[in-house]
Design a protein that fits this description.
The complex is a heterotrimer of chains A (358), B (297) and C (327). Chain A has 358 residues and is mostly helical. Chain A contains 15 helices and four strands. In chain A, the strands form two sheets. Chain A has a two-stranded antiparallel sheet. In chain A, strands 2-3 form a two-stranded antiparallel sheet. Chain A is globular, with a radius of gyration of 21 Å. In chain A, 51% of the residues are buried. Chain C has a domain of 221 residues. Chain C contains 15 helices and no strands. Chain C starts with a helix and ends in a 14-residue tail after the last helix. Chains in contact: A-B, A-C, B-C.
Chain lengths: 358, 297, 327
């Protein structure tokens, strides 16, 4: 009754192709943005920033990236962890080599570097498909992690083999390092997440997005109607890795502060992000955020309930979490392959008719 | 099926079509002319010369030559396994023949990837529908405009200037095709949910969106009921009439083929056994043998 | 000469390691052939089997940690031990039950889905089984001993010393693994070629719908194949577990079976064997020759990069069938 499309007429094609065709949706979106930018920074504390909001925003960026590759272009990748590592190490090398240049620029540059690496590892996608490709991307994962582990130049020959983020400021405000404030961390991640989501949305609704989806749905037909598969697949790998690289950069620079590559960017990271894509919804921008939120909140929730509430040992809770995540993946693939995003759409459909469903 | 049971699906057009004398020579210097119903048949648009296509040891197409003239509807018929679809795949660049030459618009076409062929203005539909199931009807048809889009990635990412203008300009073109094929009401429906007949129509729309110089239809009426066939025939004739699009089609329904086409190529076992107007083909002994199943020597 | 002998020793050890990879790869091929499922969980199946075997052998109470956490009890062991052979049989039984459960709860609901969806479902399955294994039997590293001899084989050393003047270091476990793998492959080939169920299995692999239409029960075949794959995983788990202890990394080592498959082709049993051997030898040789120059531990990625390069030039693998694309 309140959520409806009746009376919301479109008179131009540009109105019709906008992101939120319904006025109510549009208002909801602006409201969320307003709260995120104007309210949350003033109320956020350290606990919420470090255990919920910052990881959520960073994973949302990574999930967006993988979703472009897997959900839109149909190329499954298990190399996400490795590509995040590229973003992190690129940021580290850049900011230690050119400390005077803004860290924001370095993070974006790190994204471009990751895009190049991603395109390189995406080249085989022209010859191989499906899970062959998925396994091939494992090569990227294992090789990159090994590379950052074994070549001292990447970690500036530090004794521990770790990379540690020096303190950097944006507009006079500290954004990295151990003593950075919760709102600063949060805002940096939020700005990147919102801007990148907007870019991703534009790309996916335009011609490039259609090419990706065409390749995903039927690659042979796509080529026959004029999609250049080389270009479509490589741009998908490039854009996807760009986002993942930025996520990796933020993960290291803002969230962790110090990182050891095998631990921070191992194969489990690749799976975690893939799971966020599946649970959130393949081929959905909103789903990328939903999936990231879900899998960031789940362990926090379980930890509070099982360990905090029921006094279980932490390792047992971690194992229960593994089972729940695994079962959820299977569940979503069986029941709703389009994930939370589709559930959200269905809820809205119902709301449109509520309370008079007939 | 015999050649005699053809029935008219497009009344009024039938006589005009089938009595038109179509030149059957393979030379490039054929003269343009106007058919009795006012359509202009031009010079040779595509010329296939001595095409041979092999899969391993199997010869799917054996030394076939024929041409397609501008503005005409050219049918390729033949029993199952005759090599018709392979022929269409050669034309659309999906298969590269081992021998022979493909000439298009007066130029010899070198070995090309299929997407490059699409950019020459050759669009097609598929025997087993090849739509993009995860996308809406509108998006599917928009992909047909792909070869004409010019905005770059950065512009698209920022949804700035050219990108948005272009999107809207192409959307207008696509809406015309949607109107033309009468599929306005399913614009925003994901293709995967559509019934078979509508999918075929959307596929035609996607091919038309490319404004092709040569439109290839691979069994556009397979699996349709009589009503749907009539609709599809009407659309094909209208496309040919209104846009002047040259069409090459494969079809099993002889009635449809004889009604629609200006000239017919008949294939059997990878060979060409007949070529000419529907009437000529109908009376060709080799063609009758192939369809009635005379033992091969 | 010396150098050559060292290299030969590396090759022999690589071959032995390759046999281990082949063992895991075999399970992948079986399931892929019969159900088109690329079973990422095969490695975790091996881990799960090994964990269960150790648990049964040592008389652990399953879910002890969970029960303890909920009820506050202090369960740990039943206080008995089970002889190895019986424990293996019981574990095989557990693997069959697991196959039943997987078919019932997962596969049945995913019939006809795109292969990549099935693949991702098995990744979920892998996580689930890993958690389950840990909860049932605890996550600590366990040593597994079912009576397979270990340590350097003096016979082999003496024999090679006599032959070449240099005694090769070969682990007896590796020799056993090779023998067992050979027996297993022979048994599997015999099963699929000469029994009714084997024929049905191949029919399903070829064309599930046609198989259904001649009265073959897909359910039965799937359960059977997953049981067999579970058994193969058990054998692999025993070998790996004996060699390096039963722990999580076992499922990661088993990931190596993936590049093995990419080399060998997903549908070929001989491919799995040869692919395993190539990867085994290749990575040992690479580590031996190039490794020291680049900081070592190249075994982490060598197999994948080799498979990747190989795939770019021959996408269907060594023994896979050539793919002809049609429209």
């Amino acid at each position: 009754m309140f959520y409806r499309e009746a009376g919301d007429f479109k008179t131009t094609y540009s109105d019709d192709s906008q992101t939120f065709p319904l006025q109510l949706d549009r208002m909801g979106y602006y409201a969320v943005l307003a709260v995120a930018f104007l309210v949350v920074p003033f109320v956020i504390d350290d606990y919420w920033a470090t255990s919920v909001m910052v990881p959520f925003l960073i994973y949302a960026i990574a999930t967006l990236g993988l979703n472009i590759l897997t959900g839109y272009a149909g190329q499954v990748s298990l190399g996400t962890g490795g590509f995040m590592a590229v973003g992190a190490y690129a940021t580290y090398k850049l900011t230690t080599s050119f400390p005077d240049i803004s860290i924001l620029i370095h993070i974006v540059l790190a994204g471009f570097i990751t895009a190049l690496v991603g395109m390189l590892f995406g080249l085989p996608s022209l010859r191989i498909k499906g899970f062959y490709l998925a396994v091939a991307t494992l090569a990227a994962q294992f090789f990159l992690v090994w590379l950052f582990n074994k070549v001292p130049w990447f970690y500036n020959y530090s004794a521990s083999g770790q990379i540690t983020m020096p303190e950097r400021t944006v507009l006079g405000q500290l954004v990295t390092g151990p003593s950075v404030s919760a709102p600063a961390k949060y805002l940096v991640c939020l700005v990147f997440a919102v801007a990148l989501a907007w870019l991703a949305r534009n790309l996916t609704r335009g011609m490039l997005g259609r090419q990706w989806m065409a390749i995903r749905d039927m690659d042979i037909a796509a080529e026959i109607i004029g999609v250049n598969p080389l270009k479509a697949k490589l741009t998908a790998f490039g854009v996807s890795s760009f986002l993942i690289g930025i996520a990796g950069a933020l993960f290291f620079a803002v969230y962790l502060g110090a990182a050891e590559v095998g631990e921070a960017f191992g194969i489990n990271k690749s799976f975690l992000v893939l799971f966020m894509v599946i649970i959130g919804g393949l081929g959905s921008i909103f789903g990328s955020f939903a999936g990231a939120a879900f899998l960031v909140l789940l362990p926090v929730f379980l930890k509070n309930v099982l360990v905090g509430g029921m006094g279980w040992p932490t390792d047992l809770a971690a194992h229960v979490e593994l089972m729940i995540v695994g079962a959820l993946i299977v569940f979503f693939l069986i029941v709703e392959p389009h994930g939370l995003a589709q559930l959200w759409r269905l809820t809205k459909e119902k709301l449109r008719l509520w309370p008079f469903p007939h | 099926m015999t050649m005699q049971d053809s029935h008219s699906l497009a009344p009024g057009r039938h006589s005009a079509r089938t009595t038109t004398p179509g030149p059957v020579d393979q030379g490039a210097d054929v003269q343009p002319y106007v058919t009795a119903d006012g359509r202009r048949i031009g010079g040779v648009l595509m010329d296939l010369r001595n095409i041979t296509l092999r899969f391993g040891g199997v010869e799917a197409i054996k030394n076939i030559s024929f041409d397609i003239r501008e503005g005409e509807i050219r049918a390729i018929i033949g029993p199952n396994g005759a090599g018709k679809s392979s022929m269409l795949n050669v034309i659309s660049g999906f298969y590269v023949p081992q021998e022979g030459e493909v000439w298009f618009k007066g130029f010899r076409r070198g070995p090309m990837r299929p997407y490059q062929v699409a950019r020459l203005g050759i669009a097609r539909t598929f025997q087993n529908i090849a739509l993009f199931d995860g996308m809406t009807v509108l998006d599917n048809i928009m992909t047909g405009r792909l070869t004409m889009m010019k905005s770059n990635m950065l512009q698209q990412a920022l949804w700035w200037g050219t990108a948005e203008r272009e999107e809207i300009a192409h959307r207008e073109k696509v809406e015309k095709i949607i109107d033309f094929l009468e599929i306005q009401n399913i614009r925003k429906t994901p293709v995967g949910r559509l019934p078979y007949g509508l999918k075929k129509r959307v596929e035609l729309a996607r091919a038309l969106a490319a404004e092709p110089g040569l439109l290839l239809l691979d069994e556009p009426m397979a699996g349709m009921n009589v009503e749907e066939k009539e609709d599809m025939s009407r659309f094909i004739l209208d496309v040919n009439d209104e846009f002047g699009t040259t069409i090459a089609l494969i079809e099993h329904d002889m009635g449809v083929v004889m009604d629609l086409s200006d000239r017919v190529v008949v294939m059997d076992y990878g060979r060409k056994i007949g070529d000419g107007t529907p009437d000529e083909v109908r009376n060709n002994q080799a063609v009758i043998d192939a369809y009635l199943g005379v033992a091969h020597d | 000469m010396e150098q050559l002998l060292y290299t030969a020793e590396v090759v022999v050890n690589g071959l032995m390691a390759g046999v281990m990879y082949s063992l895991v790869a075999l399970g992948f091929v079986l399931i892929f052939k019969a159900s088109g499922v690329f079973n990422y969980a095969q490695g975790v199946l091996a881990l799960f089997a090994a964990l269960t075997l150790v648990g049964i052998q040592q008389g652990q109470v399953p879910f002890a940690h969970l029960i303890n956490a909920i009820t506050g009890s202090h369960l740990e062991h039943f206080g008995w031990t089970v002889p190895s052979l019986l424990a293996i049989l019981l574990t095989a039984g557990v693997m069959i039950l697991l196959a039943l459960a997987i078919e019932k709860l997962v596969l049945q609901h995913l019939v006809g889905q795109a292969p990549i969806i099935l693949f991702m479902a098995t990744i979920g399955l892998a996580y689930f089984l890993e958690g389950l294994g840990d909860i049932m039997w605890g996550a600590n590293v366990k040593s597994l001993d079912v009576g397979i001899p270990q340590g350097i084989s003096e016979t082999a050393e003496a024999w090679t010393a006599q032959l070449t003047g240099y005694g090769f270091f070969i682990d007896r476990l590796d020799i056993w693994a090779t023998v067992i793998a050979a027996l297993l492959v022979a048994a599997l080939v015999a099963f699929s070629q000469y029994t009714k169920q084997g024929r049905a299995m191949r029919a399903v692999a070829d064309d599930p719908q046609a198989a259904l239409s001649v009265g073959i029960s897909l359910r039965f075949i799937w359960i059977m194949v997953w049981s067999i794959a579970g058994f193969v995983a058990l054998v692999a788990g025993i070998m790996w577990g004996t060699k390096s202890g039963v722990q999580f990394s076992l499922s990661l080592i088993a990931l190596k079976a993936l590049p093995v498959l990419m080399l060998g082709g997903f549908t070929s049993i001989p491919g799995a064997i040869v692919g395993g051997l190539i990867i085994g030898v290749g990575e040992k040789l690479f580590e031996y020759s190039i490794g020291p120059m680049v900081g070592g531990a190249t075994e982490n990625w060598f197999a994948y990069v080799l498979a990747l390069l190989f795939l770019v030039f021959r996408p269907q693998g060594l023994f896979g069938e050539k793919i002809i694309e049609r429209v």
